[in-house]
Queue: 2 jobs
Job 1
Amino acid sequence: MGMRFAQSTGMEQSTGHRSTAELRALDPDLPIIAARAAMQLDLVIGSIQHNEQLGQLRTDAIKQLATMISNLNGNAAGGLKCLVDPLTANLLSKAYSDASRAQLNSLQELEGAMKKLGQMLVEASTQEVPQQDLVRALTLVRDFCVKLSEYAASKRQLAYGEKPVPAFRR
Amino acid sequence: MSLLIGQTRSKLDGVIRTIDDLRSLDYPFPDPVAVLNLIREAFAKIRADFGDGVEKVDETTIKNLCKRAQEEIQNYLPILGFIERSSDLEAPVEMHGPVARLTRKAIQTDANLVIFPEWDYSPFTFLFPELTKRGVVVVGMPRSESHNALLAPLSGHELGHNVWQRERLTEKFSSKAQELIVDQITKDWSKWKDDLGLSAPEQLSDLVGYRYIEAPHLWSIRQAEETFCDFIGLLIFRDSYLHSFRYLLTPGESVRLTFNYPTLKTRARFHAGAAKTLGIPVPSGYEGSFDESVDDADGLRKQYGELADLTCQKLVDDLLASAQQVVSVRNLSAFRPEEVARVRKCLKMGVPTTGTTGIENILIGAWQFFLEDNVEFDANLAAVKAGEGVLVLNELILKTLEVNEIEERLRAS
C-alpha cells in the first residue's frame, strides 16, 4: 500500500486552511513555485535593464516564495535550527552555493543568506527596484530560484520515486 | 528557445484538451468531474505561465520552467487515466457512498472521493497538491480484487495519508525523528565515525552534519507516515483491517526495495502491539504469517536503513496516540459490538442488514462470518449452492453497503 507523488509537508492546518506557508524541501508545489518566481524575476531584471515600466509584470510567485523564505526564519529563538529539517537545510544550502558560488558552513550562515534573499525577493515583488546596481543582486536571486526548483524536483523524486515495480517492467 | 516554448505550449494544450474530453464521459458519481475541473484549473495556471513575453526570458530559466511543466504532465497523466477508468461500471460502486462519507468526516465536508480499481496490485493513493488542498481523495484498489468487498478496510490506510497531510504530521514528527537519529549516532559514535566525514558527533546538529542524516531522517518520517496510516485503518476498521491486510500482503515480498516503508513483518508487529493496547482482537498467527524479506542493502545505506527502522520504532507510541486523537476528534469510528453481531446474524440468514451506522461494523461482521462461521449460511437457505458461499457473502456485503447508503441519504434529506 503506498503513496504516489508527493505529500505536502505542512501547508495545511488541521482546519484545512493554509496559514503559514513555510518553505519545505518536500513541498510538492516548491519546484513549480520556484520556477515561476525565477521567470518573473527574469522579466523584472529585463525591464530594469531596458528602463521599462515594471507595473504590468506579474510578481505573484516572487511574493509567494518571499513569504515562504521569510517564514523559515520565523521568530523562534533557535533560528533555522528549530525550524528546518535536514533535507530542507541541505536543499537551500546547495541551491544558494550553486547560485552564488559561496560555500555555506553553518546553519547560522544559511539563516543570514536566507534573510538577505527573502528581503531581495520582497523588494523585487513590490517592484521598487529601479536601480541598475540591483540587477546583479536580482540575477543571483533568480539563479537561486532556478537551482531551488531543480533540486526540489530531484528531492521529490528521491523521496517518492522509490517504488517497487513489477519485475518484468523495463 | 521559441521552439521549446512552442512545444511546451502544445503539450500543455494537449493535456487540457484531454481533460475536456474526459469531462464529457459518463461517471456513476459527480466526484470525478469535480476532480477533473480542479486539474484543469491547475494546468490552465501553468499554461498561463507561457503567455506573451515568455520568449524574452533567460534560457536557463525558461528551460527550467519547461521541465517543471513537463513533470507536471508526467505526474498528472496517470491520474487522468485513473479517472477515465473510474467510469467503468464493473467497479464496486456500492463502496463509494460509505467510504466517501468517512472521507468527508476525516478530511472536509465537501471532499471528493474517487475510489476505483486499478492495474496495480498494491492499493495506493495519489496526493496531488492542487487536489489535496481542496479535499480530493483518490484511492486505487487492485483490479483483480475489485469485487472483493472484504478488502474495503484497506481504504482506511489510504485515507490515513490524506489525514497525515491535513494534520501537518510531518512537521510534528520531523524534529523528534531528527533528535532520535542524532542521539542514536552519538551513542554509537565508534560505529559511525569512520563512515561519516565529521570530527565530532556535535557536528550532526549543524549544516555540515545535516547531509549525513538526511537519508535516515527522510526514511524514518516516511515509515512513520505508513505506520500512522495503518493505525488509522486499524482504529476505524479494527480486526477487519488486520484480516484484509493479511489477505492482500502475506506471505510478503521477496526483497526489501525501499526503506520508505517498515518491512511487512515489522508493520505486522506494530499492528499487533497497537491492537493489544486498544483491546482489538489480533488474528491468530498474525505476525508469523508475514515472512521477513531479504534486505540486499549494504554499507552506509544499510546502516542508514537500520537507523530509520529504529527511529520509526521509537515513534510508534506517539504515532498511535496521534491516530487515536484524529479518530476520536473527527468521530471516525462508529464501532458498536451489538451492530457487528447483528450484521453477522443477518449475513448468516442471507439478508442485508438495515439500520447500520458505519461501514466498519459491516466489514467487521462480514469478516467474522467469513472466518469464524466459515461462511455457513442458515440451513434453510437452500438458494446458496455449495462452493458459492463466498460469492454470496460478497454480494450481501455490497447490498448491505447499498442499503446503508440509501438510508443515510434518506436521513440526510
Job 2
Amino acid sequence: MGLDVENLSVSFGRKPILRDVGFAAKAGQVTAIVGPNGSGKSTLLKALTGEISSTGTARLNGLDINNTLPTTLADMRAVLPQSTPMSFPFQVIEVVRLGLRYRGPEAQGVARDMLARVGLAGYEHRLYQELSGGEQQRAQLARVLCQTWSPHIPDAPRWLFLDEPVASLDIAHQLHVMQIARAFADQGGGVLVVMHDLNLSAMFADQVLVMKDGALIANGPVHTTLTNALLSDVYGCDVISCATPHAGSWYVLPHLSRIA
Amino acid sequence: MVAIFAPTTVPIDRRHVSRWAHLVLGLILALTCLASLAIGPSGASLWEAVFRMFQGQSLERIEAIVLWDIRAPRTALGLCVGAALGLSGAIMQGLFRNPLADPGILGVSAGASLGALTAIVMGAVLPFGLAQLFGAALLPVFAFFGAWVSMLILYRVATRAGRTSVATMLLAGIVLAALTGAVSGLLVFRADDLQLRELSFWQLGSLSGSSWEKVLIAGPMMICACLFGLTLARGLNALALGEAAAHHMGIRVQRLKSMSILTVSAATGAAVAVSGGIGFIGIVVPHMLRLATGPDHQGLLLNSALLGASLLLAADIIARLLVAPAELPIGIITAIMGAPVFLWILLRSRSIVDL
C-alpha cells in the first residue's frame, strides 16, 4: 500500500512538462518534492491527483489514478492547492465543513476540531474573504483534514497531497503546519508535499524527491540526497549545506550561497 | 494566564437560519397561492369562495369557472415558472461562480425570443403544416425549441475534449446573443405592426392565457427539472472552491456541469416558452437569500425556488390589479420591483459582489 509511480509523463500540446518520472512513496512517511521554479513539481502533483491526464502508471494504494472515480480517490486522499480563491461569501466554518464527506453523528464537531488544530479556533463565523492569505491557507488545510479525518481507512492508509502548504505562512505557523503533516504520517497516513524551503524539508521529510526540468534527478533520504553538488547543479547557484553539532540536523544558509 | 471574556453576541449558525427559511418561505408561498386564487379583476373578491372550495363545499357556477378554469391554472403555472426561474438563477450563479450570472447567459432568452418571433412572423408560411399541427401551442413550442437549440450550440462550442470551459461559454453566449439578435432583426424587418405588437408583449412576459393544457405540458418538465436541480447542491458547493478542488473532493466536475446546464435549460426553456421573458427573478432572488442565509447551496436552492415562486405570483397579482380590467405584462412588474432592490444590494454590500 503506497504511492507507486512509473514512467509518468505529461505534455501540454507538444511541450513535455514531465518526463519519465518514477518513484515510490510509503505511507507513514513524509515525502517532499523540491526543485527550482518551473521544474514540474506542481505538475507532478496535479498528475498524481488525476487533475491532468498523464501517460505511464501512477497507483495510489494499488488503484490506477487515471482510471479511478473521483469519489473513490477522494476517500483515499485530500489535496491542498497553493491558494484557493472562493467565489461566494462563505464563513470559515462553512468552508471547513465542505470537506466533510460523511454527515453522520461521528462527523459532528470534526470541522470545529480541525479548525482548532490549525490554530483558527474562534474564526468560525468570520468571512473567508476577510482572512489574510496565510489564514485562508490554514482554513483550507482544516478543510483538507476534514476530508481525511483519520489517517487510515480500515485496511489502507489515507494520503495528504500538499502543494507548498507553508509558502504564505509566518515561521511559527510554518512549523505548526509541518508538524500537522508529520503527525499525520506518524499515525500511518502518507504525506506528499511540494516544498520550496529546503530547511523545513530537511527537518520534516523522510524522503526527498529533487526535480529539474521536468525530470526526477534524485530520490532518497535528505542527508544523503541533498548534497552540495546536487543542489548547486539543480538551482544553478552555489549552495552550501551545513550540519549543526546536533546529530542529524542539516541546514543551508542563503548567506553562504552565491549565484554561479 | 487570565482569559478575558469580551461580551460577544452568540454567532448564528446559518444552516439553522436556512432551515427556518424553508418553513417561512413555504408558508409565504402557500399564502401567495391562496391570494393568487382569490384576488383578481372579476369584481367580487373570491376569498370566501376559496375557503369554501377548501372545505369541500359546492361553489356557484360562475365562481367555479373563475376559480377552476382561470385562476387555478394561472396560479399553478406561476408557481412552476417562478420556482424554475429562481432555482435556475441560483444554479447558474453556482456554476459560473459569479453572483451576477443568470439563465440569459446561456442564450436561453435570446434563443427563445428568436423562436417566438419565427412563430409569430413566419407562422403562416411554415412548411409541413406545422402551424395547423400545433395550433395555439405553436409559439410556446417554437420558443422552447429556440431556447434549447441555442443552449446546445453554446454547450458544443464550449466543450473541447470532454471538458466544458465556463469562460468560453460566457463569451460564446455574448456572440450567440448578438447573432440571434441580428436574425431576429431580419424577421422584425419583415413583420407587420400587429406582429410586432404581439412580439413586444411576449418579450415583456405574462401569465395571461394560462390554461390547464399549458400546465400539463410545461409543468411536469419544470417540476422534474427543479427536483433534479435540488440534488446538485453538494457539487455546486464544492465548485465554489474551483474546479480542481471540486475534483479533489470527489465531484465528477464535467458531469456536474452538463447536468446543471441541462437542468437550467429545461427549466428556463419551459418557463420562457409559457410565460415569455420574465427577468430579474433569477438574479434578485438567490442574491437576497445569500445575504440572509449564506451561500451554502444545500438550503439556497430550495429557498430560491420557494421565494421565486412567491415573488412571481405576487408580481402576477399586481399585474392583474394595477390596470384592471386590462393587464400589465409581468416583466414590467418584476423589473420595477427587481432593479431598485438589486441596485440597493449592490450599493449596500459592494464587498460581497466584488470578489
